[in-house]
Amino acid sequence: MSCTPPKGPRLIFTDDSKGQHGVRFAGDKGWVHVVRGGIRAEPESLLGVKLKPGELHLPVSDHHLLDFFAAVKTRRDPVAPVEAGHAATTLTLISDIATRLQRRLTWNWKSEKFINDSAANALLSRSMRSPWTL
């Protein structure tokens, strides 16, 4: 299953039977595959690439939860902002729903609902156990 979010790259979602767990970034010079336990690349020399001072450097966090608590204490943004977590979770959920339904779906990023698909929208939430309500 694949999708292309606004202003984003084409994403391919598979289960473990069709691809390795983790995230793979593929480009015209090879790929880099990242899992919680490590990182691999083809060609392996991609792992030795050093970014230049003017290039985009992402912040580093060895522990997202501790980084979040530090951000609260210092009032700075965490390394992993909540908006990025929401977007990543949304992509995972809509990909999973499309895979389960085995059909193409259209997602409205503003309303956060599938367009004209009540069956898919029904899978966006589940019944809450008593006494919980919204």
In short:
The chain has 134 residues and is of the alpha+beta class.
How many beta-strand runs?
7
Please give the largest β-sheet.
3 strands, antiparallel
User: What is the strand arrangement across the widest sheet?
Assistant: 3-4-5
Task: Work out the helix count.
Answer: 3
Helix-residue proportion: 25-40%
Structural class: alpha+beta
H/E element sequence? EEEEEHHEEH
Mean pLDDT: 88
| Span between termini | 32 Å
Spans with pLDDT under 50 lasting ≥5 residues?
none
Radius of gyration: 18 Å
What do these coordinates show?
The chain is an alpha+beta fold and 134 residues long. 27% of the residues lie in helices and 18% in strands. It contains three helices and seven strands. The relative contact order is 0.11. The mean pLDDT is 88.
List the main descriptive attributes of the protein structure presented here.
alpha+beta; two-stranded antiparallel sheet; 18% strand
Give the topology.
Layout: E1 2-3, E2 11-12, E3 23-27, E4 30-35, E5 38-42, H1 64-74, H2 82-101, E6 107-108, E7 113-114, H3 118-122
Antiparallel strand pairs: 1-2, 3-4, 4-5, 6-7
